[in-house]
């Protein structure tokens, strides 16, 4: 079946919700106004239970079907990014330095639209939990909601997520079984040498030279330690040292990110970073400390649930518009924590030829809304067939 007639009818109303959210972006867990807006809408739809404060500022609405049965979860993220908007839209951010540059306003609006439809029709058995999550952009809000007992509290048996994708045509979907988004680890390296006069380098242990060697050596993790067909990124993104032209400093610091699509490669990358730093510390007589922080895990789609997602997307989009083996992406996604807790699938929905995610000129494409709402509704109805 194509886009639902009711989703098309709701398009203008949902667009207004989306643009309202876009004007008032909030960061990380501080999404109080957004969460209040979501909770008020859910209550107005007649959603049976509306629970706030899950995972600090998350919201869950429970919609009961016509008969008893299990519960599936549908998740959207609510937070924005610390970016100065340059979209030029009349609904642009009203808060300088904050903007919805990743489309979470669109994700939230589409799930609200689906909640309204499902509360009206209830053409399913069991329950649908609509999950509105804070702090996807680095705060791990998905993990906080899981740790807060969300899955157990609402007896969620499966969970599904969706993200817009610039460059993919509107009305198209992409998904894959297995790893679809990367683990996003971070490292900080502190080099303590011996400072001195720049004209007498032989009396120093130069942390800048050592740091430069580390930057070069880290590149060999991808080129010489990893299987060429594996996916791995090691990027140094900060290098700070020195304060004068004629002084070799005591200390230098480096920082960066590691992106992997398997736990094995994640282990290997961390081990190699530590080995390289230990070796260069011994070679130069310096002290090198490595702080390695494991951030979001790999986002891994479950086979059966991915199959259901493909079937549903194909119903809405039609043949030839669902890529069931989309290339994995090296960005991170904290829906990964929910997929570690319950089986499910994470899909991409086309945003058309727009600016890229996290770009100051980005804006969610409102033409996507009926497609996303229809996907959520049909997924819920098919997984909880009455």
Task: State Rg.
Answer: 24 Å
Helix-strand category: alpha/beta
Order of helices and strands: HHHEEEHEHHEEEEEHEEEHEEHEHEH
| Largest sheet entry | 8 strands, mixed
State the CATH superfamily name of the largest domain.
Answer: Zn peptidases
List the total number of helices. 11
Q: What is the CATH topology classification name of the largest domain?
A: Aminopeptidase
* Beta-strand residue fraction: 25-35%
Low confidence ranges: none
The appropriate CATH architecture of the largest domain is 3-Layer(aba) Sandwich
Number of strands: 16
Description:
This protein is of the alpha/beta class and 386 residues long. It has two domains: 5-181 and 298-383, Aminopeptidase, CATH 3.40.630.10; 183-293, Alpha-Beta Plaits. It contains eleven helices and 16 strands. The chain has helices at residues 5-9, 11-23, 32-45, 104-121, 141-147, 150-153, 207-225, 263-284, 303-317, 335-341, 369-383, and strands at residues 49-54, 58-64, 67-77, 125-133, 156-165, 173-174, 178-181, 183-192, 196-197, 232-241, 247-248, 251-260, 287-293, 299-301, 322-323, 344-350.
């Amino acid at each position: 079946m194509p886009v639902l007639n009711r989703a098309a009818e709701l398009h203008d109303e949902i667009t207004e919700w989306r643009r309202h959210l876009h004007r008032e972006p909030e960061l990380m867990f501080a999404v109080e106004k957004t969460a209040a807006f979501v909770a008020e809408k859910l209550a107005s739809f007649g959603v049976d239970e509306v629970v706030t404060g899950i995972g600090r500022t998350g919201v869950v609405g429970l919609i009961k079907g016509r008969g008893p049965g299990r519960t599936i979860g549908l998740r959207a993220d609510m937070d924005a990014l610390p970016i100065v908007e340059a979209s030029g839209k009349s609904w642009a951010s009203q808060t300088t330095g904050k903007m919805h540059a990743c489309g979470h306003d669109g994700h939230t609006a589409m799930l609200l639209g689906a909640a309204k439809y499902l509360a009206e029709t209830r053409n399913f058995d069991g329950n649908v939990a609509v999950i509105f999550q804070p702090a996807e952009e680095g705060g791990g809000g998905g993990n906080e909601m899981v740790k807060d007992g969300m899955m157990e509290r609402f007896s969620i048996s499966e969970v599904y997520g969706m993200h817009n994708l610039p460059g993919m045509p509107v009305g198209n979907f992409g998904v894959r079984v297995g790893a679809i988004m990367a683990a996003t680890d971070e490292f900080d390296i502190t080099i303590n040498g011996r400072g001195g006069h720049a004209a007498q380098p032989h009396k120093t242990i130069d942390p800048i030279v050592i740091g430069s060697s580390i930057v070069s050596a880290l590149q060999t993790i991808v080129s010489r330690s990893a299987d060429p067909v594996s996916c791995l990124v090691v990027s140094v993104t900060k290098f700070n040292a020195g304060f004068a032209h004629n002084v070799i400093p005591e200390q230098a610091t480096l920082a960066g990110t590691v992106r992997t699509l398997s736990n094995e490669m994640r282990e290997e990358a961390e081990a190699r970073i530590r080995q390289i730093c230990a070796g260069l510390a011994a070679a130069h007589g310096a002290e090198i400390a490595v702080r390695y922080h494991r951030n979001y895990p790999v986002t891994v789609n479950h086979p059966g649930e991915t199959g259901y997602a493909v079937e549903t997307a194909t119903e809405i989009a039609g043949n030839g518009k669902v890529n069931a083996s989309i290339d994995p992406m090296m960005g991170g996604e904290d829906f990964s924590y929910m997929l570690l807790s319950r089986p499910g699938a994470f899909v991409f929905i086309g945003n058309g030829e727009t600016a890229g995610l996290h770009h100051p000129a980005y804006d969610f494409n409102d033409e996507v809304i009926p497609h996303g709402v229809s996907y959520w509704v049909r997924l819920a109805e098919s997984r909880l067939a009455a």
